[in-house]
Structures are given as C-alpha cells and as structure tokens.
C-alpha cells in the first residue's frame, strides 16, 4: 500500500488526534461520510478485529509509514529481545523523520520527511536523504547552511513543543543530539501497542 496523500482531517475525524500527520484540528468531530453522520452522539459497538485495525492505522498514519514498512518493523521486533510492541514503537520513534519532528524542526513528520528529501538536513555533518534512517546514540542532526533551509527550520521552532529527554537541541546552532533510545513513556503517540502486535500475529 502506497503512502497516504489524501485529505488529512478526514483521517483525524476517523482515528483521533495524530500530531505526526497534521497539526490542524477538524471543525467536525463525527467520523467522515454518510454513516459517520448517522452515528454522531452514539457509540457503535466495534468488533475485536476493527479495534485492532484502528489502532494499527493510527500508528501507520501518525508515523507516515506504508503497510509493508510497518510489517517489516514488527518482524524485526519479534526477532529482538524484549517486548515486541515497545520495540516496534522504538523503531518508529528513532527514524530520522520522527526525530526531526520531535526536535521541533518540522511541524509534522510528513514535513520532516520533505525536509530530508530536499537535502535540508545533515546527519553527523553529512547530507542525508533517507527519512527511514535509524538514529542511534550520539547521532548529530543539523541544518544545511543554506539560508532557505535555516528559515524553514526556524519557522517551525516558533511552535512550542516539549522536548523528550532522549533528545537535546540548541536553537542557536540549530543542532540536535540523540542522547539515547526513547523510553516507552515518551513515545509521541498514545497507542496500545499490544493490539497492533495481535493484529499482525498471523502475518509474522
């Protein structure tokens, strides 16, 4: 499945708040579509499959990954020691585009991916164009010396956002450092990772 490029507020109305997808807030709160209007103010009973699917979709849309990418992360996590769900979240949170978003250098993860793709970001003083790069401890993330690049990042920094303890950032030099792997309590999305692991249990 390719990356989603459709209306983002419809996704927010269906799945709930996803800061990595968009910073906008929909005016309507009911789910999109004809049936969504009919269920406004009423809670519809969901099947167990539907509950797990929704949780998986929230993760996918927030981090902007494709179905095949997410499935690959789950398979890698199952081979690692520790909680599969937490490791999947760590894989997603330690992606370069996610780290740039958490540093405040971009308003959304999608915008962070665009910054990387257009060559505005440097990793360990080298130009990088791979949003899925897995950041590790002591990685240094900086902005290109181009005036346009620095303007884009400075504009995003005007929006205040809490910086998680596994990252540090200097507004003077526009440089961020990865101090450690993210802890579960500082994951950027409220999600039940166990439901996601259960959803993929037959595919991995």
TrEMBL record:
Residues 94-158 form the RNA-binding S4 domain. Pfam families: Ribosomal_S4, S4. Keywords: Chloroplast, Plastid, Ribonucleoprotein, Ribosomal protein, RNA-binding, rRNA-binding. One of its GO terms (molecular function) is rRNA binding. Residues 3-93 form the Small ribosomal subunit protein uS4 N-terminal domain. The keyword Ribonucleoprotein applies. SMART domains: Ribosomal_S4, S4. Residues 31-40 have a biased composition (Polar residues). It comes from the Eukaryota. PROSITE patterns: RIBOSOMAL_S4 (PS00632), S4 (PS50889). One of its GO terms (cellular component) is chloroplast. Residues 15-46 are annotated as: Disordered. GO terms for biological process: ribosomal small subunit biogenesis; translation. Its main location: plastid. Belongs to the universal ribosomal protein uS4 family. Part of the 30S ribosomal subunit. Contacts protein S5. The interaction surface between S4 and S5 is involved in control of translational fidelity. NCBIfam families: PRK05327.1, rpsD_bact. With S5 and S12 plays an important role in translational accuracy. This is Small ribosomal subunit protein uS4c. It comes from Watanabea reniformis. The gene is rps4.
């Amino acid at each position: 499945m390719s990356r989603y490029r459709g209306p983002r507020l419809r996704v927010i109305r269906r799945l709930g708040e996803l800061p990595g997808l968009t910073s906008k807030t929909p005016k309507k709160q009911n789910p999109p579509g004809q049936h969504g209007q009919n269920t406004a103010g009423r809670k519809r009973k969901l099947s167990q499959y539907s509950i797990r699917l929704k949780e998986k979709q929230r993760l996918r849309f927030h981090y902007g990954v494709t179905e095949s990418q997410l499935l690959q992360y789950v398979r890698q996590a199952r081979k690692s020691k520790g909680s599969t769900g937490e490791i999947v979240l760590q894989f997603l949170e330690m992606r370069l585009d996610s780290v740039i978003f958490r540093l405040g250098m971009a308003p959304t993860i999608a915008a962070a991916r665009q910054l990387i793709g257009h060559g505005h970001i440097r990793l360990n003083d080298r130009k990088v164009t791979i949003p899925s790069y897995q950041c590790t401890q002591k990685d240094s993330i900086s902005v290109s010396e181009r005036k346009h690049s620095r303007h884009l990042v400075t504009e995003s920094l005007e929006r205040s956002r809490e910086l998680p303890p596994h990252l540090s950032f200097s507004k003077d030099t526009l440089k961020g450092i990865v101090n450690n792997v993210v802890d579960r309590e500082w994951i950027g999305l409220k999600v039940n990772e166990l439901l996601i692991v259960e959803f993929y249990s037959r595919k991995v």
